[in-house]
Amino acid sequence: MAMDYNSTRSFTMTLAHRAVGDIRRGGFRQLRNYVDMCATLAKNQQQKDFFAYAQKALQRTDSCYYSLIHRLLDSVDEDRICTVGVNMGFGGLIYGASELKKQADHGYMMDVENRRLKEELSTAKKEAAHWGQKYHELWYEVKPYLDALHRAPELVRGFLEKILAPKQERTMNVPQRNRKRGQDMEL
């Protein structure tokens, strides 16, 4: 089970207080031991490179880092040293970097999703243009029929009434049809 940020930070703060106390009591030999331990525990190449550089810098007994650390331990409160160290080391470099990596990965995934959606949109636009063209072609083909419907609604209605008229009216005998037309011939 992974520890949450606050628990891990509290644990790291406890280790930092112990390390500062050990360095005050044991001197710079203890500092080198902590750097060696961190180099062994380093997970990624950047951490390994950092601690390899720190090991190399602390190998020389006349290193300027020893006087800097000595002045720091003498003039700054232990709580401040630990707080700054944990904030920068754990909060900024370890936890903060992992959070930034997660956000970058999420951003990359969103970029991939956006590209996919843009491709789908482009395909949909092409299909819409294609079907729009098909619609216009069909409209031009049926335009004469539509015009006829608009121009001659009475003729169409009459035609449809004749087609759909009851069967009796359609089976009139010839003289009845002729009389209706006024073409009744007398013998």
Q: What would you note in describing this structure?
A:
The protein is rod-shaped and about 135 Å long. The chain has helices spanning 5-26, 28-41, 45-59, 64-75, 78-151, 153-164, 167-170, 174-181. It has 187 residues and is an all-alpha fold. The protein starts with a helix and ends in a 6-residue tail after the last helix.
Short description:
With 187 residues, this protein is mainly alpha-helical. The chain has helices spanning 5-26, 28-41, 45-59, 64-75, 78-151, 153-164, 167-170, 174-181.
- The helix/strand class is mainly alpha
Order of helices and strands: HHHHHHHH
Global morphology: rod-shaped
Strand content bin:
under 5%
- Which consecutive residue ranges, at least 5 long each, have pLDDT under 50? none
Number of helices: 8
Strand tally: 0
Strand count, sense and barrel status of the largest sheet are: none
Q: What's the helical proportion of residues?
A: over 70%
- Spatial extent as radius of gyration: 46 Å
Cα distance spanning the termini: 116 Å
- What is the residue-averaged pLDDT? 79
Offer a few descriptive terms.
187 residues; mainly alpha; rod-shaped
Question: What's the structural blueprint in terms of helices and strands?
Answer:
Blueprint: H1 5-26, H2 28-41, H3 45-59, H4 64-75, H5 78-151, H6 153-164, H7 167-170, H8 174-181
